[in-house]
From TrEMBL:
UniProt KW Lyase keyword: yes
PANTHER family: PTERIN-4-ALPHA-CARBINOLAMINE DEHYDRATASE
Organism phylogeny: Bacteria, Bacillati, Actinomycetota, Actinomycetes, Pseudonocardiales
Gene3D superfamilies: Transcriptional coactivator/pterin dehydratase
Protein name: Putative pterin-4-alpha-carbinolamine dehydratase
């Protein structure tokens, strides 16, 4: 995805961890069309009302906790935190910008970072 106007982000590939992001109006709510377009690049995610959601089953409980810990570190460094529900080996991630009442480019960017962590741990 490239910077295509307000609310879009430019991904910078990383193996794992925090990446430099280049944002344009990151806190503007995305339109339904923008969310649909973003989900084409986030195939494991779905729109669930005013949030993006993904369910991941890990190989073990410790691996699930490791993922949550790594994602928590990223979220803390970016001051944008997903909701995470841990049920044994299964973690459900929800990304939403609560202060805006919906999905912003911060959420699509965080979803991509979550995908990066999941891919690194499952490799």
């Amino acid at each position: 995805m490239t910077a295509a106007g307000p609310g879009w982000w430019v991904p910078v590939p990383v193996e794992f961890g925090v990446r430099n992001r280049h944002h344009v109006h990151m806190t503007e709510l995305l339109t339904d069309t923008q969310v649909t377009d973003a989900l084409q690049h986030l195939p494991e995610w779905r729109q669930d009302g005013a949030q993006l959601s993904r369910t991941v089953e890990f190989a073990s409980f410790p691996q699930a906790i490791q993922a949550v810990t790594r994602i928590a570190e990223i979220a803390e460094s970016e001051n944008h935190h997903p909701d995470m529900d841990i049920r044994w080996r299964t973690v459900v991630f929800h990304c939403s910008t609560h202060s805006k009442g919906g999905i912003t480019a911060n959420d699509t960017s965080l979803a991509q970072e979550i995908d990066n962590v999941v891919e690194a741990l499952k490799a």
